Structure prediction request, 293 residues.
Amino acid sequence: MHKRVTYSSVWLPYLLVLPQVAITLVFFIWPAGQALYQSVLRQDAFGLRTEFVGLENFIDLFQSDRYLDVFLNTILFSAATTFSAMGFALLLAVMADRVIKGASVYKTLLIWPYAVAPAIAGVLMWFLFNPTIGFAAWALGGVGVEWNHYTNGTQAFILVVIAAAWKQVSYNFVFFLAGLQAIPRSLIEAAAIDGAGPGKRFWTIIFPLLSPTTFFLLVVNVVYSFFETFGIIHATTEGGPGGATEILVYKVYKDGFVGLDLGGSAAQSVVLMAIVIALTVIQFRYVERKVQY
Prediction:
């Protein structure tokens, strides 16, 4: 039986949700509306003259080979970051779920990196992989890999993926570990009695039962890789070399705040927002069908 909550005042429920509604309006609806409005305008660098140009900013975007290259970079970066962060976090969660001695210390150490700001994560990786002073670059040189992300676009791309995935692993780890601990041990023990090995038990019992957690993290990680990795790229490569690590959110900043193309930058932000909304809808429309609640 469900207990229905009643309030002494008719206005009390609305007052309780008012702070969240206000935050949504101020920090999402209003900026999104401003971006949509500015995307159909063309302004000079000082904002002294404004001209309505309709969809010209969007047409210029999709006629630009450079923008299409950045678009492809973003898709590859998002896919690589999402699957790397989720895959490694799942592996760590499975290992942590089996640890007996020192389990709390082990789990705490794995969670700590989430407290690191994206820009700090980028700086850490910059130091580790610096071709002159970096330990990781030195270790790679010892096995015959000449690392220099300043001149090698592929290596720079790998570097920002590593930094972005490392920053997000802790977040994914917490949810995967909670999901693993919620699975009844009786199911796993029954499968073991039936002769199923560790690999078969994981893929036929554990992983399907983790599908709600996996789906939630998939949505969160895609949004993270599109929007929250600006600080990592800015601190690590600044989009270089030759734009090899430039993604859509960084191009919005570069064109708007550096190039002072306010209309074009606003159009890019609208496209970026539409892409993320479309990806989220596709995930809920098609991927969620495979989720077992």
In short: Residues 62-292 form a domain with the MetI-like fold fold (CATH 1.10.3720.10). DSSP finds 13 helices and two strands in the chain. The mean pLDDT is 87.
